[in-house]
Amino acid sequence: MYERAWAAFVSGDLEAAARAASSHTRFATRGPGSRWVWSLRLLHAEVLDAQSNWNAERELLRAPVPADPAFGPLEVRRQIDLAVLGVRTKDAAGARRALDEAAAAVRDPEMRIRLALAEGLSAATDHPDAARQSFGAAAALAAQAGFPYWQAQALNNLSYALKRAARYEESIEAGQMALAAAEKLGARRVAALAHGNLGSAYAILGDFENAIGQERQAIDTFRDIGARANMMIALGELGLAYDGAGDLRQAVANHQAAFDLALAMNRKDDAARHAENLSLALIKAREWDRAAEWNQRASALARELDAEGNLPYLERNRASIALGRGDAREAARICHGLLESAGTPPSLRWVAWAMLGDIESDARHPAEADRCLEQALRIIESTRKGLFDSGHRITLLSELMPFYQLYVDVLCRQKNDQRAMQVVESGRARVLAEGLELDDSAAPRAGAPQFERVARQAHASILSFWLAPERSFAWLISSGGVQRFDLPGSETVEKLVTAYRETVEHSVRDPLKNPAGAALWQHLIAPVAAHLHPGERLIVIPDGALYRLNLETLVTPAPQPHYWIDDIELAVAPSIAILASSAPGKKAEAPSLLVIGAPDYAGSRYRPLANAEREIREIQASFSGRVQQAYLRAQATPNVYRQADPRRYSLIHFAAHAEANAEKPLESAVILSRGKLYARDVLGIPIRADLVTISSCSSAGSRTYAGEGLVGFAWAFMRAGARAVVAGLWDVSDSSTEQLMNGFYRRLAAGAAPVTAMRQAKLELLREPDFARPYYWAPFQVYVAAMGQ
User: Fold this and answer.
1) Are the C-beta atoms of 368 and 387 separated by less than 8 Å?
2) Per-residue model confidence (pLDDT) at position 442
3) pLDDT over 90 at 44, yes or no
């Protein structure tokens, strides 16, 4: 009987498991019963836990298992079940007592695994790192002791804990392992839970298509097996995924389905959460009356539950609804109330100040708008780490961008360019700066003199772009001052960049005759170019779509059409703050070289790189007599990068295939022998290199995050400590890349700075008829995180 009940439980057929396990009640009148009766009783309690029927579960777990050695570890199992129940019902003290009793008596291998799982559940909400360690230990114990069901469960819980700890790529990896293990066992409920965890992790990373697919699979399975509580959660997550994807109709429908199910189960705290999310989706859809109705429902539930902590968020919604209805006075009144309340968290205080700034800007009160927006910025700056610790910091920066765009526009209307530049810098590359352990705390307060000093120390002018929906801006910073230029809105720039990039990267047409290239020149560069000297070094800080464009390829019309690279020496930087926070670059007296490449792709889907080994040998020859180490062919493995201790080298070069991952940029990888070196792996290996070169396709990255820029290998290596990175924007030609890299390293060996050496190598290639088109010479850019590069 027990085996049948357990098989049904593992498969996810909770109703069948409950029927089989409840047979223990037929023997309840016969005294304590046998071991198998108690085993069924505890399994029945675990089925009830999966069905969220906690009152009935508590009754079954109330009596202790008889103190008889014949009953083995069943009392430990009961204590573990009580601990899990305590976590579910928010009885932390009861959960802790049960865990301590179980830990004192546990001997059985399976109970050790269950105990580790329960410890992880207890820590999951407030201590995700501790939960991660417990779930990881449970997975390892289960694999070692041969308990595949508990291994799948532990991997699924590990996926959840990693998500809570904002380690989303690792969460997805653990979730995929859990899903594979559960599907192999036919453990449908665990598989559905894994789908749900994967869906929410994908949504946080912005991969909404994958998120929606995963959540739908979870919901279908939960519906089939009757796991209503799990289905309710997955419906809410599906609503959030649709919201992120911009499908507000589906977002509203799924949030309402989740709300209805929560109420049917008397889960009022969950119902309040779904009502709030539904209101937010309706606010985005500008359905103000329905948004107000659902926000009121959420408020009533929060007050009924005495959930005072939720009320400020619902007041935020009320302010947004009032403003959307055109009642700016009521919106301002609610915002002032939020600011006067001691219970309003910083994450809402800056929102309230920003909304007030928006109201004052619309009322044409620029001084008051500036004051309000300045208050919002001060809160963001003073609580930055606290705000960002709550989730994935790069995507949270994206959420802050509308505020920065509003404030910059207000300041530019006031012609306060110095303060506008300060606000722009306060939102740039903050996650990257933290990774570099740079002191950028003064950057938001820096003024024109400090910006000009950075330009002088870099022996360059700096061109900083800022794209926004209505109008964009560029600032040219040189030793002679700061000038602002007005640009078109971001949608116009995006369309022109997309059209021109298509020609440069794919078309056989001559880019010199492409109208998009000429239009970009006129919109972006023509006003600036008049203030630059021929051959001058220019450090560009892009924004938005401009991260996907190499400005060297733009067509200068006079005296005759030519590429801008003929006139300018160009590098790309993440922010002025990062340039300012790093010491001026010093060239190593004796450069040392680490080269990894020309991998052995036998048995894989990747074609061999015919010229990669020759490229490497030519680079080595340029540095003959210098310290160098090369790992080629079968030796060029992912592990060899760490084993080589890359901190010892001033120059690091990769020559291999690469794959950019737009949805999960830190999953971008250099393809080596027998595996991949991921961008996320690079982050964990500190380096001190003057230059890292990734001689690969699309190695710079393929996804732009507001505030951080193009996130991929260039970003990862700079965050690991590289002073400059050479990386590619698109797929490259093997033959032209070999020639370009040969010329580049030959000039580096002769003492040229990376930016200068790269421009000279490109111009050499441009003069050859076979390689004159930008497709051949323009994919590689020099990204600098330190001056003097």
Assistant:
1) no
2) 41
3) yes
Cβ neighbours of residue 513 closer than 8 Å, sequence gap 6 or more: 561
Is the pLDDT confidence value at 396 over 60? Answer: no
| Arithmetic mean of pLDDT over the chain | 86
Give the C-alpha separation, 180 to 168, whole Å: 18
- Which is more confident, 766 or 609? 766
> Rounded to whole angstroms, how far apart are CA atoms 244 and 392?
15
Lowest mean per-residue pLDDT among 245-254, 390-399, 611-620, 743-752: 390-399
**Token pair for residue 684?**
């964990």
pLDDT at 680 (0 to 100): 80
Sheet bearing 675-678, strands edge to edge: 657-659, 669-672, 675-678
104 Cβ partners below 8 Å, 6+ apart? none
In DSSP terms, 592 is beta-bridged to none
pLDDT over 70 (residue 706): no
Sheet with 651-655: strands ordered across: 481-487, 472-478, 461-466, 536-541, 568-572, 780-784, 724-728, 691-695, 651-655, 593-599, 628-633
Residue 209: what residue type? Answer: E
pLDDT in tens, 27-42: 544 444 688 888 899 9
**Looking at residues 497-522, what average pLDDT do you find?**
81
Q: How far apart (Å, rounded) are the C-alpha atoms in residues 412 and 255?
A: 40
Q: So what's the pLDDT on residue 573?
A: 87
Structure tokens at 773: 């088109």
pTM of the full structure: 0.69
Burial track 231-268 (b if 16+ CB lie within 10 A, e otherwise): bbbbbbbbbbbbbbbebbebbbbbbbbbbebbbeeebb
- For residue 479, which of 524, 440, 515, 533 has the smallest C-alpha distance? 533
Tens digits of residue pLDDT in 256-268: 999 999 999 999 9
Contacts 24+ apart (CB under 8 A), 107-112: 107/73, 107/76, 108/72, 108/73, 108/76, 109/141, 109/145, 109/147, 110/73, 110/145, 110/147, 110/150, 111/73, 111/76, 111/77, 111/80, 112/141
* pLDDT at 711 exceeding the cut of 90: no
Which of 54-58, 274-278, 498-502, 646-650 has the least mean pLDDT? 498-502
C-beta of residue 512 within 8 angstroms of C-beta of residue 504:
no
Cα(232)–Cα(270) distance, integer angstroms: 9
For residue 743, is it left (φ>0), alpha (ψ between -120 and 50) or beta?
A: alpha
Type of residue numbered 157: N
658/678 Cα distance (integer angstroms): 10
Within a 13 Å sphere around the CA of 71, how many CA atoms are in the beta-carbon half? 20
> What is the pLDDT at residue 25?
65
Mean pLDDT lowest among 67-71, 187-191, 372-376? 67-71
Alpha-carbon distance of 452 to 455, in angstroms, equals: 5
Q: What is the pLDDT of residues 555-587, one digit of tens each?
A: 898 788 899 999 999 999 877 777 776 544 444
Three-state SS string across 690-757, please? CEEEEECCCCCCCEEECCCEEECHHHHHHHHCCCEEEEECCCCCHHHHHHHHHHHHHHHHCCCCHHHH
Task: State the chain's maximal CA–CA distance in angstroms.
Answer: 103
Which residue type does 36 have? W
Residues present in the chain in total:
789
pLDDT of residue 390: 31
DSSP 626: S
Q: How many helices (H) and strands (E) does the chain have?
A: 36, 18
Cα distances from 691 to residues 120, 174, 206, 584, in angstroms, run 42, 34, 31, 14
For residue 209, what are the contacts with CB-CB under 8 A and spacing of at least 6? 245
> Strand, coil or helix: what is 182?
helix
Q: What are the Cα distances from residue 744, in Å, to 191, 212, 564, 756, 767?
A: 51, 46, 19, 9, 15
Give the number of other CB atoms < 10 A from CB of residue 286.
Answer: 11
619's tokens:
């680079």
662 in Cβ contact with 645 (< 8 Å):
no
Q: How far are the Cα atoms of 587, 701, 750, 787 from residue 755, in angstroms, in the given order?
A: 13, 19, 14, 11
